[in-house]
Every structure is written in C-alpha cells, then in structure tokens.
Protein 1
Amino acid sequence: MTRRTGVFVCHCGTNIAATVDVKKVAAELGQDEGVVFSNDYVYMCSDPGQQSVINAIKDHDLDSVVISCCSPTLHEKTFRDTSAAGGMNPFQCEIANIREQCAWVHKDKAKATPKAIKITRAAVKRVRRNESLTPIGVPVTRKVMVIGGGIAGIQSALDLANAGFEVVLVEKQATIGGHMIQLSETFPTLDCSQCILSPKMVEVSKNPRITLMTSSEVKSVSGFVGNFKVKVHSKAPFVDPEKCKLCDDCTPVCPVVVPNEYDLNLTGRRAIFIPYAQAIPASYTLDEEACLGLNPVVCGKCKEVCEAGAIDYDVKPKVTEYEIGAIVAATGFDLYDKGYLAEYGRGKYPDVLDGLQFERLCSASGPTGGQVLRPSDQKEPKNVVFIQCSGSRDPENHCAYCSKICCMYTAKHATLYQHKVHDGQAYVFYIDIRSGGKGYEEFVQRSMERDEVIYLRGRVSKVYPSKGKLKVMGVDTLSGKNVEIDADMVVLAQAMVPSKGTAEAAKTLKIGRDKDGFLAEAHPKLRPVESVTGGIFLAGAAQGPKDIPETVCQASAAVSKVIQLLSKPELEHSPTVAKVRDSHCTGCEMCVDACPFEAITLVNGKAHVNEVLCEGCGTCAGTCVRAAIDVKNVTQLQIHEMISACMGG
Amino acid sequence: MAEAVEVRKVAQESGEFEPKIVAFLCKWCSSAGSDLAGVSRLQYPSNAVPITVPCSGSVSPIYILSAFNKGADGVLVSGCHPGDCHYLKGNFFARRRIYLVQKLLQFIGVEPNRFRMSWVSAAEGTKYAQVIADFVKDLKPLGPHGKLGAKR
C-alpha cells in the first residue's frame, strides 16, 4: 500500500516545543515509510499554519495527513476542515496528541521527545489505513415531542410551536401545570404563580400546533435522531373533555373520597374530579383506581347525573404512535419523602409539613383559601419553625447536593407567613444562605429586617410532639447555644429529587442519569441542554435542582438546540461506523447482543449494521471472536499497528 | 526461563529499568481525563503511550495480548466509570472481558500487576496521573516482561 502521508508538528508557541524536540519529531517521522512530507510550525492552527497544510497537500500530492499537536477535542475539526480545503477527504486526517498527553505532563525533553515520536508514529500508522468516508445523510421528521407538562415542558412546547414546529406534549397527570401550578406566590417578586402560569397553559390548549396528551406516558422509543418512533400510552378518557361542561354535578354524588394529590393530601377529592378549577384540559376526569369499578350495577351515579352525556365507562385505553424528530425531556422533580427523616417524625406528625404543602396552605386556591391553619386542628399557628436543608447537603444520610431553591422559598414562606399572621413568629434554621440570583439576596434581607423572621444558623436534631405543640430541639451555632422552640407548625424544606419514574424514562429514552439520579447532560458546561443521545434534549428540574427562571431559560435553550437540529434539510451522522466482513462472520449473534444501540441484526445469517443507528463505539468489535466486525478507521489491524508504533517498532 | 530471570536481575540491579506501557483510553472519559491531567500540568512518568479508542468496550482481548507480544511490560485499559459509559453499557462488556483476560494471564503465569483496568472520568485528571504513576511503580520491581514477547 503506497500512501503519501504528510506529518505536521506544531510547537504550540512553547507549549509543546519547550518539552518536545519538535524538529526531531518531524525529522524522524520524515524517514518513515510512506511519509513524503514532514514539517514543523510555531502555530499550526493559525491561518499561515493551516495554509501550509493546504499547500503541502497540493504540492506533494498528499492523500493523508497527521497533525501532531493538541488534543483532538480542540482541533480535530479544524484540521479536517483544512484537509478538505486542500482537496483531501477529511477522514484522511488524524491528530496525534503530543500536548495534553505528552508535553504538558513531562519535564524531561529526553523522555518526552521519544514518547511524542511514538504517539505521532501511531497516528501515521493509523491514517495509512484510513478509508475516505462521507458523512451519512439522514432525513429529519419536523415534529417534536415534549415529555412533561410542567413549566419546563410548557415553555418548550410554546417556543417550538411559535417557531412553526408541530409539538406533541405528553403529561402523566390529568392536567398540565406541574409543581409550579401548586405554588402560591413566587420569589423574589411575590407574584402569584397561577397568574403567570395559567395564561401559558391556556395558550398551550389553544395552539393548533400543539397536540396535548394528558394522562399519558411514553412507553417506548425506537429509532434515532431526526427519526424517532414513539409509542404513547393514554389512560382511558372516561370523561369526554369536549362534552364536559364543568358543571360539577358529578362530584357530589360520587361516594368515594381519596386524598387529593394536587393539595398534597391536605384535602380529599372524589373519584370523579377536576384537579383544580383552572386545569387544562378543562374537564373532569375519572380516577379508574378509586372508582367503584366503572360498573353501572355497582354505582354509575356520576353517569346518571351528567346531563351533557360526557361520561362513558366503556372507553378503552389507547396507544398512539408518533414519528418524531427530536425529544425534550422535562420530567421534573419531586420532593424528598418526609418518611426518610426519622428525626422529624417520618412524616407522621400532621403539623410537620413539607414546602409544597405549605405552598398549598398559602395559596388562595388551597384547602384553607390562603389562610395558614394547622392541619391537625385548623388553628392559626403562632410559632412556625422552618428547617432548611432537610435531606439536602447530607451525604452520609440523604442527598449530598444542595437543592438550590430552598433558601429562597423558605425566605418566601417565612415572609408570607409573617404577612398573613401578624402576631406570629417565624424561625428559620439554616446551614448557609445561598441567595445567588437577581433580587434574591435583597429578598432574604428584607425577610429578616422588615418582616422580622428570626434566622438561626444551625441544624435541628429532633422534632417531637409535646403538649399539643411540636418541640423543636436545635442549635444556634453563632451564639453557641442550644435552642428549644415550642412550635405550632414545622415546615421542612425538603430536598429536590428527580420525579418518580425518571429512572424508567431515562431507560426508555436511552439517556444517562447522574449520580443523584437526575438526567445527565452531555457536558456540564458546554452542552448543558443536550443528553448524550443525539436528538434528545433536557429541560428543567429533571436535569438538576433549579428555580423557575432557570427552568424557563433551559427550556428555551433546549428549544433553540432542537430548532438548530431540525432546520437542516438532512442530518449528518458520523460515518465511522461498524462494518462486517461477511467472509468471517459466522452469525453467532454475539455482536447483536452486545450492541448498546440495537444497530446490528442478522440478515441471511450474517451480522448487518444499520449505519444510521450505529454510534461507532466498537463494543461489537471487542466482542467478536473472529474479528469479523470492525469500526471504520479504528480497525483491529490499525490498532495492532498502533501498538507496534507505541512499542517503538 | 532462567534467561528471563537473569535479565530481570540485571535490570533490577542497574536500577534503570523503565517499563514500557500501552494505555488504551476510551475517548469520552479516560482520554478526556488524561487531557485534563495535561491542562492541569500534572506530572507523571512518560512510560505509558496512550492509544485512544472509542470505548473501553471496543478493546478486544487480542489487543492486550498483542501489546505484550510486541514488547509491552504492562498494559492499561481505562474507561468511564461503570454506569457512566458514553455508549451506555460498553464498559460493562469491558469489565467482564478484562476479568477473563486477567484470569487467562494469571493462568499462563503473567504477573497480575502487569495488567490493569481503571475507571477515570473526564473530570479525574489527578486520578489518571496517579494511575500511571502507581502502575509504573508497581511494574518496576517486576522487571522486563519476557513471557509473551515474540522472539524477533
């Protein structure tokens, strides 16, 4: 095989040249078989550097190049583009990393130079067997699925629809709105959550480009970026939203009462119910599990009284299949279960509430119409203790991370309480106050100074009922004294955790989760709204604890990435995919089982790679005992030759 | 055999033995981790020459044997932490396969310290430098590897 390879060694100023004898590297490689040109330059990535590569390709009729420089993550694309500009196939360009993996980690030039030669020679050996490849063109479906109907999902769906894309919004609950619609007021402006969210929900229901699927869940996703096939299971809609007139004739006759999830079980609801008056879609729903059996012989009272004829017990659940180009996962959060906190009563004391329950007490649409009353006896609490970091920042026992929003919402809760109960006193136990955000610090200061909330720096060791009150045993580390408070109510700022079902959703979508179970972004800084799987994007608290403004930002950012993706007429898929040598393949199917992307199937007794599904990981190649499958441009032969080069051979 | 022992003795006595290592690094975690070691200007011995592969799951047992055959004194395979694989489950395959290779190498009498697997994430530059430093330190007393090398 006669190849005409060019080797270009970069000094990177003195970054490389200080520890690696770059002239020697270029000179030695120039002696290698097939290397017809070698050179060094102070900044290979600069315009004159790149031009020298282009000129060399033309002048010396090069068919492959190795750039010996920094990490391929920095300039592989740069030099592949340069190679293309020189008229060469970009996949005939390889990078030898002699900066991060050599010059920067060694001091002794006598040792670093031979290592740099080995690294460069390995790249030369590799590129000599590279195939010229063309990116695989993939068609795109211009329709987006948004999973989760909280503020993240709502914002994503509206932005996408307003940009002209068709959207399917899938929500597990009977209504969209998520946790935000349960909130009373929002920090730091104290504007009402309903007032800012409800209009957006109405917009979702009215937008002709948005298909709203409530009481529905994504059951399976197949396909790949630009071309997903998604199956959505919907619960049976026993009440027809088109016919339901919201007259509320059905609920008084329903004999079943179950806890109301929307009010965090502070109130009850019937088996036929509307989550709240402003729910979208605006319709009652029938809770199949609570209902006496959907059997007119057993009950059937709601159907009897429904004048609109909206109720039908015989409707069946359905499965809808959609063709989707991109998916935004906005599956949201839940609060860490109080049951895990033995020291605060494991959720058994009725007057120990979590943050969301307190929101409902403060809310005008809540169980008490916005009056703060104790759930146990409906009396106004005069001393309320707020405990921050309940379950957060406790790596030994609970969640290691900071839940980010609790400092702010506790300040808000304490402020709202002081506004509502003028002769009451709010106490806040905290570890640190984290109030980074526009107007946030001022808000916390105001709660201390103007609303006279007492902040105690320290933790609470125990809460227990005593003489009709709750004894709170804490410590104030600033005065060094133990503190005992006879509280009427305790509010725990529970940690934020990924919503129930996030693990299953991640599995269905084939995206990763981080150590805390939140959906993992592709890069923590540079790709915060993309998952590692192409075409699947992340928004909101499903990716990590965040407040409303941040969630809205991330939702819009995810949408901009989706638009970027779907605006192209065709998608480019990397052509470094697996390739089968039919003569060696015995059809043992080991690669079929090993492939993480289900890209390999057996066709006529031989493994067959779907190049569009293949991500080029090479797990198949590592598994095949007959070396019948290889990833293009990282073949086993190439690796063996690279090993030889590394051994100085 | 006697010859190999002799070589080893000489190398140990002269104190100049520098083990040759091939390090297979996955592109997404360990190679990125080694980049971070560079960016952080951490210093570690120059004995290991890295070969970046797409995934630790793509490392065939043959690569490891081939490296020993071609004169390596030690072989390292480094991937993403279990559960964090960029390709979802490639490193689980690597882990199983590497376990078997370890058993095989032990069976044919290669010192277990000549071959190791590590989990180095893109954020673990310090760990990568440590892994290489430890490996070199552990290989030095073993002397040159003579078992699987081709007599060329």
Note: The beta strands of chain B are 21-26, 48-53, 74-79, 115-119.
Protein 2
Amino acid sequence: MTDAALSTRVAAAREERVVGSNAGVRYLLAAIAVFISALMLAPVVLSFFASIKSKADASATPPTYLPHSFSLENYRNILDYQAGLWTYVGNSLLVAALAIVLVVALAVPAGYGLARFRFRGKEVLFLVLLLPLMIPYQSLLIPIYMMFAKIGLANTHIGLAIIHAILQIPFSIYLMRNSFEGVPKELEEAAVVDGGNSFQLFTRVALPLVLPGVVTIALFAFITSWNEFLAALIVMNKETLFTVPVMLVSVRTGHLGAVDWGSLQAGIIVSIIPCVLIYVFLQKYYVSGLLSGAVK
Amino acid sequence: MRLPVHSSLLALALTASAVAMPGAASATDIQMWVRASGATAAQFMIDLWNASHDDKVVATVIPDNQMVTKLATGSQAGDVPDMVSFDLIYMPDFMKAGFLKDITDEMKKDPNYAGVAQAYKDIATYDGKIYGAGFTPDVSVLLWNKDLFKAAGLDPDKAPATLQEIHEDAKKITALGNDTYGYYFSGSCPGCNIFVTSPMMVAAGSKLLPTKAGDDALTGDGVKDVLTEMKAMWDEKLIPDSAQADTGANFFATFETGKIGIQGTGGFAISALKHDKPDMNFGIGFIPGTKAGEASAFVGGDVIAIPAASKHADLALQFIHWELTDEAQLEGLAKNSIIPSRPALADNKYFKDEPRVVTTAQALGKGFTPYALHFNDMVNSDSSPWIQMLQTAIFDGDVDGAIKTAQDAMKAIAAQ
C-alpha cells in the first residue's frame, strides 16, 4: 500500500468518526451516551451513598437515596471484622497473584503450541481443553477439595489458586491461541532465517507481539479469583485464610437472614477498588487484547 | 518491546511463595467454627475465655447457609475444627450422620448441664446419647411499638394476649394512616416464620413437624386458625405489601422505621433496637395462641458440639464445661443482654433494669425446638412445604388446600 493510499484511508476513517449530520443529532447522541453512562454508574454511586449512611439509615424502609447522615460506622465495621479487612485483602491478592502466574504459565505456551504446531488430534485436544467451560465447577469442588485435603493442598493459598486457575485456563488458552494465530508467520520465518530455534521464536518473536493477550488473560484471572466465593469457602478452613468475598457474605449477615445493608455496601465499595484501579492502568492492553481474541 | 509485566509477575510469585507458608499454628489454639449470625454472641464468650486461659479459642466465621456444606465436607475429608457452634436445628442430622463426638459421660457429670433449657437438651440428644450443649440462645417473642399503641388509643403496656387481639389492635394501628401498618412478617422467609409464626400454631395446640417416618405433620386446629387469621389481616391490608416478597432481608429493619405496630421477633431485637433507635418505646411479650393464657416460643440460637475428628477434643470439652458455669453464663451472655442457656439464671443483676430481657429469658422455658431430620427440606429451603403453605394460604387465600398439600409433602420428606 502506498503512502498516499494509506493517508486517504486514514482520512476516511477520521471522517466516519464524526457521527450525525448536524449539531442536533450530535447533542441527542451525547445525551443518550450520558444517560447510558448514568445508568451504568448508578449502582456504584448508590452503593457508595449507602455505605456512608448510618446503620439504621442504610436499612431504612422505604430506602432513602441520599444519605441523611454521614457516618463511617460501616467502614469501621468491615475494617475490624474478625481477622480484619487487610487479612482478607492480603489473602485475596496473594491467591489472585498465584492464579495469574499459573494461568499465564500454562495458557500462553499451550496457546502457542495449538496455534503454530501441527500434530495429530490437535483439534480434538483443543476441544478437550475447552470442556471444563461446559461443566459447572460447583459440582467439581467437593471432589477436588477431598483430593486436596489428602495431599495437603487444602487450607493453602496455592491450593485455592490452582482451583481459580482451573476455572480460567480454558478461556485463556482459547484467547491465546487466537492471539498467536494473529501474528504473521513471516516474522517467525524471518527469525528462522536468522538461525532462531523454536523456543527463541516463541519467546523473542511471538510473545512480545501477543502481550496485550497475555495482559488480558491475566486480568481475567485476577477478576475471577478476586470475586470467587464458593471455592474460597470450601477450601479454606480458617478465618485468617479467608478471602474478601467470604468475609463480605459473613459481614452482612444479621439474625435470620436479615441483611446489614450498610456494611454490605461498604464492603462492595472496598472490593471494587482494586478491580477498577487495575482496569484503568491496563486499559490500553485490555481492549486490544480482547480484539485479538475476537477476530481471527 | 520488553516485557515489564513478566518481571513483576515473577516478583509477585516470589512474594507469594514466601507468604504462602504460614507458621505452624500453636498447639494450644482451639479452632472453632461459628455461624455468622451467632458470631457476635460467640465472640463475647470467646473473649471472656481467652482473657483467663492460656489455650486460646480462635473463631472462624462461616456464612449461615454454608455451615451444613462446610461441616459435611470437612468431616468427610477429616479437616474439621476442634469445636463448632451452629444452628441447633441441624443437630439431629449431624448426630445421625456420625459427625459429632459423644459427650454423654462428661455432660452427665457436669452439675450445670442439668440446668440447661430442656429444648437444648432434647435437640442435642440422639439415641440416648448427648452430643452438645446450648451455647448462645435466642428465642422468639412478640414485639410491639408502644408509641403507635398510645396513638391508636390502646394500652401500651399490655401485650396482645391472643391472635385475635393482635388482629383487632392491628386494625386500630393501621387506621392511624400515614403508611402505618398493624402487623408485619417476612412472607418469603421460611426461617423467620418457623421462628415467629409457628409458635402461635403450637400455642394453639398444633404439632408441626413429623419426628420420624410415618408421623403426621401439621396436626391440630392451631395451623388453620393462625393461617385464617393472618389471611384476614392480609386481605384487610393491615400488613404492608412489601411483606409478601421479604426473604428475611427486612425481617428486622421494617420495624425500625417505627411504622409497624406488632410483629414477632427474636430476643436479639432488644439490644439492637436500643442501639439503633434509642428513642423508640417498645414492649416485649410472649407469642400468643388463639386463647388467652396460651403462649409459646421457638427456641433457636446456637448449640456447641465437638466434631468427631476434633484434634483437641479435651480442650473443647473444657470450654463446654466452662461455658455452662455461672461465670460464663452471666459475664459472657447476660452482661451483653443475651439470655443464658440455663433458665434458672434469668433472674440476675444484669437483667434487673431491663424487664424485657427477663420476659425473653422466661420465654425460653415456654419454648420448643422441633426435633426433625431433613429440617432443611421441610422448612428452611426456599421452596419448602412450610413456606409454600404460608404463601398459598395467606397471599392466595386457599387455607385448606395449602395445609393439605404441606401435610402430604412433609410426610413424604419424613419417610425418606
């Protein structure tokens, strides 16, 4: 493609980004966009408001939208709950980090192998690797826990991280395979000419190009692990080993299923902070990673 | 493009492996699982014990509806705590499954055990053997808003003595208008209703749950009388519409708005209301039946037991003996407005200034706990025959059909 043709296409692309023929339509579209954003933000904002209400105010029926009183009671409550908020956050971060390491270490080479090498039964193997997506993991938890208890993995961060990694690996392999297939073969062929072996092709050529995909599967692994409740409850048997979601369920529990709304909302606000931060910082990679998986 | 992400992941992994190996727990830590809604009360006891003992109790809070799964899987895998405090209603299932340690001899030797409320002793005995003791009791009582009673021209110091009286009072309170309602119950919460609605039926002479296969369910007129009266209150709009969908989330919060006249609740409401709504005037009485003088209560709360595979069963036993002593019952429970599990201690220095707690403690003596296997299927699950009966009778209006269906379903479950 010549430079001139390229610049024409870029200009055409820019042209397409201006939506609507006149100002009225553009304002209307802006209004719709603002409305949708408001709709998306409303739960978070309402959660935040509820979290800074006093306990009685937060449980009021009918509910009030804006706080009538300002109180940090709910935040103090979750901060001091049993083992203390930081213990749960620490456990969650540690398990998530281990899960990310496992997922990346296993799914990236697997994806590369499936994308680049030809061997018998490859597609069948790929399908088998995707199978866990089709079975509800809740049904596997108890047998896995029994096995873990026998080999000493119950009650350990690594044990829980392994389960979280199992949940995430099928999707990650799928995404990594597509990412690697998006890398032009010519680049690797050029490296072969320069005397690179298979391992070097993988680490020096293909891997840097699929970095957005790697970041994406790491993010997904983080979010899955950070939010996962049931396995965290079943595998861990000590308060000091529980993760944030287990604490959140306990902290909101009142008598006979009554819900302590204030503490629950405060817990929600605290627990979304890491997810939001990570997303904001890695947004650039995240979006392009998703695209590399979506279009083959 | 270099890969900074890789090096930071490596750093994370190294940190992780360093932190992942926790130091060996001290041999003298006594591990205890507590269900979340009993955790506050249990913590009072644990703090008191830890203040004067070298072997510390360490609590792990388990979400209420996961306790059964957790204890069952833990028992199967041999990974259990040294003792456990859970909803007493699951005691029969756990005893039958062999998950708990037989402590008959030790309890029979303990003079304090003899004084434990009968409901706790019954629920913790299986095949003549004792497997646990009362720990942090709760019992259902009737709660009414004295300010609304006064405004409606009723005597604020007199508890409604029968269900019909509740109905009459509810009419006058609803007539005050301004979104005020006479009565409230959580219409989609099976547990709340076994706690506060079933005592009316029992007080009126009904027997509710089959104890063993072949027993009849929901016998006597009490069930029908209570459902008919509640249906009438619903039809007359003396109960707010929101009651129908309440799964228990607002079991307590609704009364705190000050717009509900009467409702059944637990003893915990006294300290909770005093904390949340210091200005509200409220009364506590027994849950009545259909005739004056009839009253009952559901004895709930937590029992304490030792899992069969407990590693420090001797220390756990010491704790159980200790929690039944006067010191623990008074300084751990009564001092914190929680009723002791030994009814004889109801009359104590801490309750002197709060006659409402004394009423609650007396309700413990009048109360019952249904001894039933498969309690979860019969009552506590969201689609149980118990909650379906209440909903069909009260909201749909088919009282007789609802009772008949529930009787058959419960009998079938008991036969399993």
Note: The domain at 140-298+370-414 of chain B is CATH 3.40.190.10 (D-Maltodextrin-Binding Protein; domain 2).
